[in-house]
Write a sequence for this structure.
């Protein structure tokens, strides 16, 4: 079995499952691992290769790590059943979680010590684009890391931004994107509910603002969730205390003041406190509505 | 002369001059008035009709008021040389400044008392679209106000959003748009300079983020000003303390908390304090750069 090359995806959540499916669709032998055994069984029923990890590890040339955060990434790579020590020389880890740039640099260093390449490769685009193999990947790493990762990048991404020859740059760009995305979602909610106090309905808000200078990618994507009263979690509120927390930690280390990010983070913290953490992030509108005594669509 | 119908534009700044030129281009007899006599002479040299206002007033069927704020709007309409008392029955005022919705309602009431229609008609799109007759107009007013204003709206606008049959709704939507636009410009600056602390250049920021979920209309429009170090004032910093101030005043009256808007406003206030009020609003990036000890493009 050790002559065969294969990919393993660690983390079969909304993003990882989509990436694993895109790899299968590209004809690549793909293992899928998750702490939720039902997700692994589902993936195997759709053509995914079975474990256990120990048997598969020496055939894995590409490990895609698509878990929630830095702690889970480190555990998958170097924990009790860490994969990196099991991987063969010259294989590559593609690390997709949003993590601090310094963490990515540390992971790269530890991988190189084990003869394994590391691609700092945060992803953007949401679950639908993960499933269709059309993600944007903000990637940095050595030339060898990019070359080894190429079959998986080709299968999963529409855009691969090559941001430098060392880990850290990919995660830095992702932090920049998350600063903007997190603030824009909260600002959409602030503006939409402010409009409601002045008689502007959510539908009219979307109709007019999406054609004016106040629009944003996130406004066009998330405001319809509020207008429909549909908070099915495509991307959870819980993402934002984590990601904006990373932004502010990195900013603090750099001596950088980010007051708008800090204000947005507080609104997400209120949402978590209200028990909305697992709802779609457009539910940040409920914080504003509660404070102002407004009824959002679907609430009455 | 009293049988002739004509339009008068009050305020020949970046927006008003463009609208007046669009009216001329549409073959409409147009007077232009401004406190800066050079602007009036320039407009007359391009085909604008001469004053004085007293002679022209009884022929004016449409008065476009395109001044800086509510105080100037009220002065043009009802001040010592106020136009409304001079205008004939059934004529219309098109009021384009960003003003509080309650102010617009008051102006409508006072116009109706004089037998003059009032269209609450804030504009969006910037000087270039004003000049090309492609503005977006967020309008509300009576059916008669819309009907009388139609020739001017047709000449100046690409989109006329009809937001209701009474003044106030147009200004409410404009306030919503300005909340978003003002926050998005400042957030662009926060993210761009945060990225610089992590080695993300302004050019790379624009290349990547404009294709990712963190993008906004304002980011795509203003970030290039920072990347080029060009702060030629297409829209001044000074606009934002005024417009976000209106948003927060309206919000306060409505019992609405807008913490992200408040945080953005403070950054514009810092910019004004630094003497940047008359620079392009992308110069908000200089606040962040100064605080973090960064050199923006063009600064070294």
């Amino acid at each position: 079995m050790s002559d065969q090359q294969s990919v393993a995806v660690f983390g079969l959540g909304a993003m990882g499952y989509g990436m694993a499916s895109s790899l299968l669709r590209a004809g690549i032998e793909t293992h899928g691992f998750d702490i939720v055994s039902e997700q692994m069984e589902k993936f195997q029923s759709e053509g995914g290769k079975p474990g256990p990890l120990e048997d598969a590890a020496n055939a894995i040339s590409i490990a895609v790590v698509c878990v929630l955060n830095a702690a889970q990434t480190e555990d998958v790579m170097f924990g009790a059943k860490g994969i990196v020590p099991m991987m063969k020389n010259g294989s590559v880890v593609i690390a997709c979680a949003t993590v601090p740039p310094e963490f990515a640099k540390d992971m790269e260093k530890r991988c190189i010590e084990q003869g394994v390449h590391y691609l700092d490769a945060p992803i953007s685009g949401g679950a639908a684009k993960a499933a269709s193999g059309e993600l944007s990947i903000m990637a940095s790493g050595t030339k060898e890391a990019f070359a080894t990762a190429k079959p998986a990048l080709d299968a999963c991404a529409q855009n691969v931004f090559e941001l430098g020859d060392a880990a850290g740059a990919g995660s830095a760009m992702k932090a920049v994107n998350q600063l903007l995305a997190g603030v824009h979602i909260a600002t959409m909610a602030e503006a939409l509910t402010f409009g409601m106090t002045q008689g502007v309905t959510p539908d009219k808000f979307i109709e007019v603002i999406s054609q004016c200078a106040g629009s944003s990618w996130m406004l066009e994507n998330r405001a319809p969730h509020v207008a429909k009263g549909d908070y099915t979690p495509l991307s959870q509120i819980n993402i934002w205390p984590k990601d904006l927390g990373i932004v502010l930690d990195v900013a603090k280390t750099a001596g950088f003041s980010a007051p708008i990010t800090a204000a947005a983070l507080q609104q997400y913290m209120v949402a978590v406190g209200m028990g909305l953490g697992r709802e779609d992030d457009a539910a940040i509108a409920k914080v504003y509505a509660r404070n102002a005594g407004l009824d959002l669509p679907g609430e009455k």
The first strand of chain A starts at residue 6 and ends at 10.
